[in-house]
Write a structure and sequence with these properties.
The structure is a homodimer. In chain A, 65% of the residues lie in helices and 3% in strands. By secondary structure, chain A is mainly alpha-helical. Chain A has a two-stranded antiparallel ribbon with strand order 1-2. In chain A, a hairpin with a 3-residue loop joins strand 1 (84-87) and strand 2. The radius of gyration of chain A is 21 Å and the shape is globular. At the A-B interface, helix 3, helix 4 and helix 7 of A face helix 3, helix 4 and helix 7 of B. The structure holds a DNA duplex.
Chain lengths: 245, 245
DNA sequence: TTCCGTATGATGGTATACCATAAGACCGCG
DNA sequence: CGCGGTCTTATGGTATACCATCATACGGAA
């Protein structure tokens, strides 16, 4: 970091403002902290750091190329998100998750997602339905390739559309955070045999229920969707009954 | 902070260890950060800082008697919790809340609390029922005094008992955070006429349903309890349709 | 008087220095 | 050989220094 302070902002000013609104400069002045936060979070979610692994601050400084101030604030953020735990007299580690916690997360997801899905089935406009249709078609194309990460992204977009169409930003935020805590679990869940088939099938059930404005059917399908995932997760996590993942 | 590093730990070592387990020293070495976090969070919840008010870092340093490192990490934590927002080019302010958000929070509470209450009604053991009885009796005693904060604490304990009895720590954590974001709203809600009557009445309904292991009745009462609160909150917040509180 | 440019102060972003502590390595004495 | 003490080092906790930027105030020129 000897050589700092001139990293971005070198785009030539050749952009043309088509209207008055777009003249506005609201460059969210991307701070180092935000970049570091995103990088580190993604790294943890992607499994670049194993659960339980120590996150030594000075090491992270080298790895991310920022100072400890930044790293520490990022760690506080991730700690509050539940992705990082801080062991006393030891410092931050990647959060572990056991079946007791994972199960709770699936429970909360059921409570929130069924609510959102039912609400969407009641009120969805045609634009929302169109969007969901598109997402599902993408998912169908990709699920044949069995690419877990792509499927995960499409699944996320599917639910995001549902949550946001009903104005449930806060609930979606909660679900997103919970999902990040079980991200590795979700990837493994998706890799399981048949999941790449049953998952999209359930989502299509949900979609059809939304199409015909049937909240109850949507709720049922959504609950089934999550409980199937939870079941697979349990089979991965529960037998050992130790803090895996 | 010229004079640091010898703040606690001066308790004389005259404690007697009644058994081997209690010999263990797990003093969570209370860090400045934890203390500052709690203080600042409480101050915001208590309304010592008005919503929208700027939280100038150096000023907070003086007020809390700690350095900016500590303050900034605490602010990151509170920001992630949703109690503080950071306006670009301006810095941290106490988070504002409008009816759109508050409503969502009540929605999520309904989803999570009805789930917990129903679960409790299905599985509650006698110890839990006893605990709830005690809490309710305390509440009855205090509700006559119309002390909003005391009632709030009792209400919190009531729900905490329900959540934790079913092992729903994560859901409770979420609810706690959401509640802190509408804390001022809750206090005002409680001050409303009749709320000091209808609130405990609803909680007794919930309690009775739990006593006789009736999940459906418990769910219904719980939903009614929250929706009544939301209704009052709406009347306080919605008409203006501006970012109050 | 009005407008523009500059100076100044406040503030957040970032980096770094310092300290206490705990865990491990090492060594010498029994 | 083993045990206890001490030294070293790694690490997190805390404080502070420095910088870029933005807002405001002020002053001079038209």
């Amino acid at each position: 970091m000897k050589e700092t302070m001139n990293r971005n902002l070198f785009a030539p000013t050749t952009e043309i403002a088509p209207n008055l609104e777009s003249l506005r400069i609201d460059t969210p002045p991307v701070t180092l902290r935000e970049m570091a936060l995103e990088r580190l979070r993604n790294a943890i979610i992607a499994g670049l750091f194993s659960p339980g692994q120590r996150l030594v601050e000075r090491t992270l400084c080298d790895q991310l190329g920022v100072s400890r101030s930044v790293i520490r604030e990022v760690l506080r953020h991730l700690e509050t998100e539940g992705l990082v735990e801080t062991a006393p007299k030891q410092g931050p580690i990647v959060a572990l998750i056991d079946w007791h916690q994972a199960r709770q997360i699936y429970d909360v997801r059921i409570a929130l997602e069924t609510t959102a899905v039912a609400d969407c089935a009641r009120n969805a406009d045609s634009a929302t339905k169109e969007k969901l249709k598109t997402v599902l078609e993408d998912l169908d194309r990709n699920s044949r390739k069995n690419d877990a990460l792509t499927i995960l992204a499409a699944t996320t977009e599917f639910y995001e559309t549902i949550f946001l169409s009903g104005g449930h930003e806060i609930a979606w935020d909660i679900v997103k955070r919970l999902n990040s805590r079980i991200s590795r679990l979700r990837v493994m869940t998706l890799s399981t045999t048949n999941r790449t088939v049953s998952g999209p099938a359930r989502m299509r059930e949900i979609f059809n229920a939304i199409l015909r404005n049937d909240p109850d059917a949507a709720t049922t399908a959504c609950r089934a969707h999550i409980m199937e995932a939870a079941k697979i997760a349990e089979s991965l996590l529960a037998p050992t009954d130790e803090a895996k993942f």
